[in-house]
Amino acid sequence: MIAGYNTISMGTGRKEFNPKKERPGLEHYLKEAGQATLSHIGGGARVDEGVVGNFMASRFNKQAHLGAFMAMVDPALQYKPSIRVEGACASGGLALVTGIKSVLSGSAEVVLAIGVEVQNTVKAIYGADILAGAGWFQRRKEGQAYFFPGQFSDRAGAYYQKIGREKARLAMARWYRNAIENARLCPTAQEFENKTANLESQGLTEPNPKSFTAHLNVFDCSKVSDGASSIAIVSEEGLRRCGVPVSEAVEVIAVGHAVDDITTLPADPTRLDTIAAAVKKALETAGITPGQLATIETHDCFSIAGILGMEAIGLCGEGEGADFVLAGHTARDGKIPVNTTGGLIGWGHPTGATGVHQAVTIWEQLTGKAGAAQITIPAERPYGLTVNMGGDDKTVVAIVYRKTT
Amino acid sequence: MTYTDRLTNVSVLGSAGKMGSGILLLAALEVADQMLKPENKDRHFVINAIDVSSAALPGLMKYIRAQVLKAAEKKVVLLRGLYAHRAELIENSEIIDAYVDDVMGLIRPSTRLEVAYESTLVFEAVSENEALKVKLFSQINENNALQPWFFTNTSSVPIAGLDKGANLSGRVLGFHFYNPPAVQKLVEVITIAANPSEMKEFALQLAKNMRKVVVPSNDIAGFIGNGHFMRDALFALGEAKILSASMPMHEALYIVNKVSQDYLMRPMGIFQLIDYVGVDVVRFIMSVMNPHMPAEDLHSDELDRMFEKGIKGGQFSDGSQKDGILKYEKGKPVAVFNSDTGEYIPISSFAATADAWLGPLPESTMPWKNLVKAPDKDSLAALAFEAYRTSGTNGAQLALSYARRSREIGLNLVNTGVAHSAADVNTVLLTGFFHAYGPVNEFVL
Lengths: 405, 445
Ligand SMILES: NC(=O)c1ccc[n+]([C@@H]2O[C@H](COP(=O)([O-])OP(=O)(O)OC[C@H]3O[C@@H](n4cnc5c(N)ncnc54)[C@H](O)[C@@H]3O)[C@@H](O)[C@H]2O)c1
What we know:
Shape of chain A: globular
Oligomer: heterodimer
CATH class of the largest domain in chain A: Alpha Beta
Strand content of chain A: 15-25%
CATH superfamily of the largest domain in chain B: NAD(P)-binding Rossmann-like Domain
CATH topology of the largest domain in chain A: Peroxisomal Thiolase, Chain A, domain 1
Structural class of chain A: alpha/beta
Radius of gyration of chain A: 19 Å
Bound molecules: nicotinamide-adenine-dinucleotide
CATH class of the largest domain in chain B: Alpha Beta
Number of helices of chain A: 14
Low-confidence stretches of chain A: none
Largest sheet of chain A: 5 strands, mixed
CATH architecture of the largest domain in chain B: 3-Layer(aba) Sandwich
Structural class of chain B: alpha/beta
CATH topology of the largest domain in chain B: Rossmann fold
Mean pLDDT of chain B: 95
């Protein structure tokens, strides 16, 4: 992969954001991200195929048929193949999988993958209805007002039972602090300008079941965001065609893509089994262990998902995620820096773009382009992992990347 | 009659007015809460939105719908539970719409007083006119067999007079909201001896359900809120008059306004507050209160002069401030009216002179918006007053005499039996006027 680009993640927290004023739409974000990537690879003429990852433009923006926006991004893409893929919040990851498959099949040498979502078109309470489409609609009625926060609140409640509430809450607050501190290093992050002094005590705010959920507060949640991310997926031939040096590319060495039955509830709410399955497949294909990873971008749509994700990835044992986070292992100076630009809680979560954003972040870290957020990639651990989840652990895309030599 | 029975048929008089529209909204939300209780599912509830202005009723209904929608959006978590039995309502948006429809279904707009003849509770927020209020209450009372209770929003008319005038045998009390009722947390409840005890209990329960802070007030014209405000305003006008012996009136007004805001650390200066309420309204409230205050003269020649020159204040329908004693641009005062010349004088043309006269503001004085957010407001305010006592500037001196007078007014409200305690006076100024500290505090001495 080459030439990654993230727009700003726009929404509450950014000082440019004013919910009462008209804001850029899908077209703007698609163009900004897509054109930025194209400008680094010599333009649309070099591209064989396009793929757009998007979750719910059909409701947020009353717009479907996003594949055909590719030719708007660059006229040179007119009459070339382009599709839109959807897998809830894993739509971005699916865009990457789709592009990777095209390259592997030989049908394309260069694929432009863009993830996009523009969600601030409705108030959060209606956004919750739209995002609930990532779950099984037959269960919507019994679900909570804030549907997904409700689902993960249930998971958090079960985790409190399992490991003790106090420790779990402390770990979730630490997760929040890490997210914001990392976001402060990344100018496109939604929480870039966050100035809160004591993040952990803010993170420990008592959840209010009357206005939100029983076990999560708003700081446990990812942001409501508008944004797009874009990256080019290329073969070796494609890399030569684009004239980009190998040092500016990351190598995709394995993909794990898994789904679970959307009509079922998790057997054990304290486990993210689909993440575990997808990551296992990806790491096995790559032939590495979790301990060999230099950095991870994981899908922390909620702090609890981040912590359970550490267990599912295999960085620690079951029930040990909180300890692992509290020990500082996931901090940017820890054993395995996680979500180095803030993740979904700190950087933002333009749902359909998130999977691509994660790939762009890993690409930046492994090619030394992460600016103030740059971490050191140890020579003996040149690997990065992205974990992109759709719904409540129903579609997962895990990808392993290697720094090029 | 139970609490719920009392709310089955409610009328709001003057419902298209500034206060009436907010009261209607609060009443509708409260009645809806009763209606949505499972045990009340077979009961029928009605709220009559009565106003003489037919033209204003469609706008009122639009306003209420928009506000109910906002309220619904804020309590979807609760609403999902209340509508759990309605299988066809699945998404938040569907539940919100159903709730808005249910609340709107309660409200019947009408220009006719007759609809109140079946009400058990009548809120009144028509114009501040004692004769009008008496007339409406009498008419309803004579034609309504249900012995309705009347909750008046009057700011200044004594309740006992309404009771007697309309022959209500104690079935009226003051339920005095602050503007805007939906937002302001304070309700002054003014009872009279003749009120049945269950009526007082109901009033307190209702205020609590509306999530209001209740301050009981005795039935003496002006009650606590205006009892303080009117006298505070008269003091300010008097100080300006004294200063105007040695400077132009507009500078004097500017100085007193600035002291009452910046030095006293209040949300706005006293003349801006008068403009906000309306020069005409303030004059009027004074005129209603004055006959009830034999020992005082609640009246200002200066306000009369301004009023005669067309200075009214008040707000435009979009809520923005009309020009009054001060002239506003984007909500900020930019000029001061001089009633001698009949002109607005730009503040920028004399601010430097006036500010020099005041002297520097001590460092311990905080802007109101910082003070009001601080956890230890009283001790921080006390620091500012300590500095005023040691500072020899004109500003500090004026601030001290202003604050001391404000305290004295507060204490007099207690001494004359209007308020039950100094704490109640402070609560009214803190919650109804958004002051950062109460007027009755030792530290201003
Ligand atoms: N505005 C405030 O800040 C404020 C604060 C507290 C209390 N109050 C009191 O509330 C009451 C209403 O004040 P407001 O500012 O809302 O006045 P307003 O002029 O905005 O509203 C009065 C409403 O009463 C209607 N009305 C007049 N005569 C009527 C009649 N015979 N039958 C039915 N409706 C009639 C008018 O059409 C108007 O809609 C007054 O008693 C006032 O003293 C006002």
